[in-house]
Amino acid sequence: MRIDELTISSPDIPDLGDVPERFSADGGNAEPRLQITGVPEGTREVVVISHDPDAPLPNGFTHWVLYGLPPVDQTVDTAAATAGPNGAGKIGWYGPQPPAGHGRHHYYFWVYALDREVTGTPSREEFLRDYADAVIEQNRFVGHFQR
């Protein structure tokens, strides 16, 4: 795995900035827009995972899993992607909702360029276990949120 040209960003969430309230579970749960650039040659599929490692759970909390993204630079079209399970066991975006008073949480938005396609809709943990050897390149940006 490497970090080279592949990038993920959002016009809605500045890297290392605060996630606006409208994207939180309590503030409307709007899906943030995502942009991916620098997709390397040989990529067969792009995957995006949003995860909060600060959540008081053994594996943190997964907020979003998107599979089946085309291997090109893009503004992510979530309607064309295959969503996997989030930490609540539901499909799709689940906005930040850390416990009140738990402090500032970090929301990692990871992008993975894979040399093979994902089968099914694995959880974040299953994806990391089963597709680690398929990752050509990865990168991330981080937003913050607290209640």
UniProtKB/TrEMBL annotation:
GO terms for molecular function: protein kinase inhibitor activity. The keyword Cell membrane does not apply. Coiled coil: none annotated. Residues 1-33 are annotated as: Disordered. Keywords: Protein kinase inhibitor. It comes from the Bacteria. CDD domains: PEBP_bact_arch. The keyword Endoplasmic reticulum does not apply. InterPro entries: PEBP (IPR008914), PEBP-like_sf (IPR036610), YbhB_YbcL/LppC-like (IPR005247). Belongs to the UPF0098 family. This is YbhB/YbcL family Raf kinase inhibitor-like protein.
